[in-house]
Amino acid sequence: MKKIILLASSVLLCLSIQAQGIFGGKVTGNFQTDIQASKADSTIGAKSLEDKMRVNAFANILYSTDNFTAGFRYEAYLNPILGFDNEYKGAGIPFRFATYKKDFLEVTVGNYYEQFGNGLVFRSYEERNLGLDNAMDGLRIVAKPLNGLIIKGVVGKQRYYWEDIWQTDNGLVRGADAEISFNEMIPSFATSDFRISLGGSFVSVYEKAATEHITIDEATYQLNIPENIGAGALRMNFGYKNFNLQGEFAQKGQDPNAMNNYIYHKGNALLLAADYSIKGFAIRLEGKRIDNMSFKSKRTQQGNMLNINYLPAITKQHSYSLMSMYSYATQLEGEMGFQADVMYKIKKGTFLGGKYGTDVKLNYSYVSSIDKSAIEGYELNEKGTLGYESSFFKKGDEKYFQEINLEISKKFSPSYKMNFMYAYQEFNPIAYGHPGNPLIYAHIFVAEGIYRFASRNSLKGELQWLTTKQDYDEFAKGDWLQLAAEYNLKGRYFFALSDQWNYGTEQGDKVHYYSIAAGCTINTTRVQISYGKQRQGILCIGGVCREVPASNGLFMTITSSF
Question: What is the H or E stretch that residue 475 is in?
Answer without folding.
Answer: none
